[in-house]
Amino acid sequence: MFKAILINKQDGAQSVQLTDVDDAQLPEAPVTVRVDFSTINYKDGLAITGKSPVVRKFPMVPGIDFAGVVESSQSDAWQAGDRVLLNGWGVGETHWGGFAQKARVNAEWLQRVPDRFSNQQAMAIGTAGYTAALCVEALVKFGVTPANGEVLVTGASGGVGSVAIALLAKAGFTVVASTGKASEADYLKALGASTVIDRNELSQPGKPLQKERWGAVVDSVGSHTLANACAQTKYRGAVAACGLAQGMDFPASVAPFILRGVALLGIDSVMAPAAVRKPAWDRLARDLDIAALERISTVVGLNDALKSAEEIVSGKIRGRVVVDVNR
In this structure, are residues 106 and 26 in contact, taking their beta carbons and an 8 Å threshold? Predict the structure, then answer.
């Protein structure tokens, strides 16, 4: 038996509880992992609160990522004792996820925890931090350099934004952080932001084409914020879009793309192949300051994950919340 958060749905009503689960209930898959840590992502908050149809199979253990140690493996790729992590691949949505003391998953979904990080630190990064690294990798691969000018990071005090700021600053970019939390200005500047602006400057309907300001953008917000960010991006700049905290809509025009050659780069963290994941984690292992990682993360127990899920959906979470599943 092991502890897990389990989501059920009956007659259209969703229920969530921390409960004991038998090993025999784990999904069929070749690798069993003793989970040490998971983390609260925005998608996890939506799944647990039921505010969006993230979960597509019931019952479901939420948690779209985890780090732990291989307990047993029927795959040659992994042996008992290997430290592994998982991000995405539908866990917590269609396959039991990380808010449990054990997980059973496909071998190709796992990757080795970088030697530089403990399992707890790997989850302080988590899917949000890994997504931030995907965004930075995409911008750099596109050809954006510090010489292109300021890089805007929206949703800056969240998990994606916090790690994106730290990585961009390390790479020499001048970062402007957009947030709705004025009280977090010192925190964001400590991570590497040179300037902090109010999200209201971007969150309202705006003109299709606006004054050029940003050399590049990392956006986790969507909706009017993404539309305005594109409208303000400089000639041949790039926008990496990875989230929808404000909404799934994109009330924009083609003007920035056909008149300024702006590139909109879609960032998918869930099904990204290993060839895309590895450079992102290599960048995190190389460039992410451990001290910055400590600043952006807090640790809660498995039972407290339910409250944290509600808080992240309400915009009350700063940085990363690590879930110690054995606490």
Answer: no
